[in-house]
């Protein structure tokens, strides 16, 4: 197994300080199942690469006293394809960097560096699509090279093995923690017994990114070898930690990059996240409308629903989402089974798509679609418009979406790339206002636009909102 880490940060040899490994010499570490070697194929001021080569003894893997041995135990991919063996080796040989410590150069620990990680061979039965679903939401540029099953027999087709390269400007500890968790997730196997301590490891290594990862449940299940009780415990705690981080600690929202421009969103959101600002903007507009019944369209994991429940004004609250999984998380977040009966009667979760007419959406005073429309394919947006503004036709509708102009303030977001892997489009302020004004004319609503977040003088605010109010004579 081979993992390489490369940086072009200058001087690039600073990588040696972070890894606590001298570029001038090879270091070897004896492990229970083989030997790990760390060396530097290149180490110059402009470019430095550290390599972790894990040499596994396949015989040693299966030698257990009193066990019968089979051919399968000897003939397998365990010594060659990246797996939990590599994660353990990473922790044992690069533990200081993994934990984000550097005594000699502490300023490097929190410095985003241009980093490139290459894993020579990984096994992934989910194919390229699953590889991208794991790494692209973490803002990596992912390069994937598939391998044929046998080069001498190309007719046998492609294998489940890939070489992957991940590129991003980030802290080294972030990259290493992502690899530590996701390498065994790709392999969907572990070479050691899984217990309660593995949940603690997952929560520690996944803190700050796993809580909001689109594949959180899939990652958790695979990491814990599909042991249901452990998976349920881990997901419940991840949901709780996500609430705490987004609503109390003021960390930046999970699906947007953190801007570096001083005096803009970064300074303000040390105390309040952009996502929280969105929710409270929507809540404030709903309060203004004097609505008694509210639809949360694309309610996700129930963050807005939780705020609505705290307001006595809203007597009937319905959350709708296309994903059963997120509705289950919303139910846990709201603790519906523990609510008093009168409170419980106020809120309903329903499964459905926002692009199909649904009588359940009719008869509401107000509706909100918070960061929803950008997840729809443009051809399906017109269906959403008809469902909401023609069929359901609530008295007031609030819609929020990212402001594409503001993306230049995100240092690690490549030019032309959208903020989130699942976004189908992102609009400028002019495009959003053109859309909103057309909707208002077409369906008989008045319209008002609002910025969300601290405004950049040139590029506006990071998010934008529109409020449609039904005209009385419509």
From TrEMBL:
<dbReference type="Pfam" id="PF12623">
    <property type="entry name" value="Hen1_L"/>
</dbReference>
<feature type="domain" description="Hen1 N-terminal">
    <location>
        <begin position="1"/>
        <end position="238"/>
    </location>
</feature>
<keyword id="KW-0949">S-adenosyl-L-methionine</keyword>
<dbReference type="GO" id="GO:0031047">
    <property type="term" value="P:regulatory ncRNA-mediated gene silencing"/>
</dbReference>
<dbReference type="GO" id="GO:0003723">
    <property type="term" value="F:RNA binding"/>
</dbReference>
<dbReference type="InterPro" id="IPR026610">
    <property type="entry name" value="Hen1"/>
</dbReference>
<comment type="similarity">
    <text>Belongs to the methyltransferase superfamily. HEN1 family.</text>
</comment>
<keyword id="KW-0460">Magnesium</keyword>
<dbReference type="InterPro" id="IPR029063">
    <property type="entry name" value="SAM-dependent_MTases_sf"/>
</dbReference>
<dbReference type="InterPro" id="IPR038546">
    <property type="entry name" value="Hen1_N_sf"/>
</dbReference>
<feature type="compositionally biased region" description="Acidic residues">
    <location>
        <begin position="241"/>
        <end position="258"/>
    </location>
</feature>
<dbReference type="InterPro" id="IPR024740">
    <property type="entry name" value="Hen1_N"/>
</dbReference>
<protein>
    <recommendedName>
        <fullName>Small RNA 2'-O-methyltransferase</fullName>
        <ecNumber>2.1.1.386</ecNumber>
    </recommendedName>
</protein>
<keyword id="KW-0694">RNA-binding</keyword>
<dbReference type="GO" id="GO:0046872">
    <property type="term" value="F:metal ion binding"/>
</dbReference>
<keyword id="KW-0808">Transferase</keyword>
<keyword id="KW-0479">Metal-binding</keyword>
<keyword id="KW-0489">Methyltransferase</keyword>
<dbReference type="GO" id="GO:0001510">
    <property type="term" value="P:RNA methylation"/>
</dbReference>
<keyword id="KW-0943">RNA-mediated gene silencing</keyword>
<feature type="region of interest" description="Disordered">
    <location>
        <begin position="241"/>
        <end position="271"/>
    </location>
</feature>
<dbReference type="GO" id="GO:0090486">
    <property type="term" value="F:small RNA 2'-O-methyltransferase activity"/>
</dbReference>
<dbReference type="Pfam" id="PF13489">
    <property type="entry name" value="Methyltransf_23"/>
</dbReference>
<dbReference type="InterPro" id="IPR024026">
    <property type="entry name" value="3'-RNA_MeTfrase_Hen1_bac"/>
</dbReference>
């Amino acid at each position: 197994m081979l993992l390489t880490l490369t940086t072009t940060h200058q001087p690039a040899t600073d990588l040696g300080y972070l890894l606590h490994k001298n570029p001038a010499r090879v270091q070897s570490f004896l492990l229970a199942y083989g030997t790990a070697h760390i060396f530097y194929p290149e180490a110059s001021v402009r470019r430095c690469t550290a390599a972790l080569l894990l040499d596994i003894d396949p015989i040693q893997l299966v030698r257990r006293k009193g066990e019968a041995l089979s051919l399968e135990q000897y003939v397998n991919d365990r010594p060659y394809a990246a797996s939990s063996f590599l994660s353990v080796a990473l922790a044992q040989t690069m533990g200081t960097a993994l934990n984000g410590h550097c005594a000699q150069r502490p300023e490097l620990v929190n410095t985003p560096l241009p980093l490139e990680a290459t894993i020579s061979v990984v096994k992934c039965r989910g194919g390229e699509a699953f590889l991208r679903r794991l790494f692209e939401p973490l803002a990596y540029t992912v390069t994937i090279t598939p391998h044929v099953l046998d080069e001498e027999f190309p007719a046998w087709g492609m294998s489940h093995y890939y070489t992957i390269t991940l590129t991003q400007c980030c802290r080294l500890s972030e990259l290493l923690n992502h690899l530590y968790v996701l390498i065994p997730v790709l392999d969907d196997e572990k070479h050691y017994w899984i217990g309660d301590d593995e949940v603690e490891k997952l929560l520690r290594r996944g803190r700050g990114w796993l809580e909001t990862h689109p594949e959180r449940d899939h990652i958790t299940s695979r990491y814990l070898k599909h042991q249901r009780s452990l998976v349920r415990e881990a997901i419940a705690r991840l949901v709780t930690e996500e609430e705490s981080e987004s609503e109390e600690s003021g960390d930046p929202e999970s699906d947007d990059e953190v801007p570096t421009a001083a005096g803009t969103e970064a300074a303000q959101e040390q105390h309040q996240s952009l996502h929280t600002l969105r929710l409270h903007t929507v809540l404030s507009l709903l309060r203004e409308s004097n609505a008694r019944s509210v639809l949360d369209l694309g309610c996700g994991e129930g963050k807005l629903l939780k705020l609505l429940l705290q307001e006595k004004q809203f007597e009937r609250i319905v959350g709708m989402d296309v994903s059963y999984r997120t509705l289950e998380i919303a139910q846990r977040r709201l603790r519906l089974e523990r609510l008093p009966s009168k409170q419980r009667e106020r809120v309903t979760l329903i499964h459905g798509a926002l692009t199909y007419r649904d009588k359940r959406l009719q008869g509401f005073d107000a509706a909100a679609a918070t960061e929803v429309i950008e997840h729809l394919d443009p051809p399906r947006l017109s269906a959403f418009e008809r469902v909401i503004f023609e069929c359901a036709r609530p008295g007031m509708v609030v819609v929020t979406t990212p402001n594409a102009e503001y993306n230049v303030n995100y240092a690690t977001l490549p030019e032309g790339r959208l903020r989130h892997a699942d976004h189908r489009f992102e609009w400028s302020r002019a495009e959003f206002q053109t859309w909103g004004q057309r909707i208002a004319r077409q369906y008989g609503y008045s319209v008002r636009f609002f910025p969300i977040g601290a405004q950049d003088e040139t590029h506006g605010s990071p998010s934008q909102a529109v409020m449609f109010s039904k005209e009385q004579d419509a």
